[in-house]
# Entry
Amino acid sequence: MPIEQIHPVVVHFPIVLLLVGFLLDGIFLLLRRTAWADVTFLLVAAGVVAAFAAGLTGQAAAHAIEPLAPPLKAALERHHEFAGVINFLGTGMLALRMMVRFRRQTVPLVAYLAIGLLTLSLLALTARRGGILVFDLGAGVALTAPVGPAI
# Structure
């Protein structure tokens, strides 16, 4: 399978890992339950790594559909910009989480929760923009004639 076709699969991993990892992590941190700290930390870390993988496969997918019409190009650039911000925020989120985990500091906890909420909000917006690219603008969709009668 060519790398540009992997993006639709890979892109779901950071969504799930960051969402579940951060929400569980936030709940357990606020309740001061440390039993799940390693699991939730690893979910968030895996989500950040998956976000970078989604960005790389997204770049390959974007190059595979060039040249682009102006509306599609603008939408794709905005989607790419949001993905870059998610990677930046995710890295910061992970660094703050490590400070909370290893230094047991309260200030990074508040910052971690704030940046985590911002990251998840931007992640939802980026996912929505990706959906618009594919379903509304037809990015990367092969249009084919029907092969036989519709079932």
Notes: The mean pLDDT is 87. The helical segments are 7-10, 12-30, 37-64, 70-103, 106-136. The first helix runs from residue 7 to 10.
